[in-house]
Design a protein that fits this description.
The chain has helices at residues 5-29, 35-44, 54-85. The protein is mainly alpha-helical and 92 residues long. The chain has one domain.
Length: 92
């Protein structure tokens, strides 16, 4: 069985981007929530600052969605590559 590369890319983008948006919005309402996570992500995503501003949340969410899409696509590609290399054996 092979994975859909575009399907997994879209699902990963929505999951990672949505999770980042969730943490960012909660951080706007409760400033101490997710602060360490957002600081860590600010060191990974250039242009994203872990400040409680809606603009930064949007920038971080876009970075996370693109990051999730790339990772999901690469995961599906690798899975399909190795799934084709080793054919199934009949279960006894």
């Amino acid at each position: 069985m092979k994975l859909s590369m575009s399907g997994l890319a879209i699902a990963s983008a929505l999951l990672w981007g949505g999770g980042f948006l969730f943490v960012g919005v909660l951080n706007l309402m409760i400033p101490s929530y997710g602060e360490a996570f957002l600081q860590m992500m600010s060191s990974v995503y250039p242009g994203f600052k872990a400040s409680p501003a809606i603009g930064d949340v949007i920038v971080g969410t876009l970075y996370a969605a693109v990051d999730g899409a790339i990772c999901g696509f690469l995961f599906a590609w690798l899975y399909n590559l190795f799934a084709g290399a080793y054919p199934r054996t009949a279960m006894k």
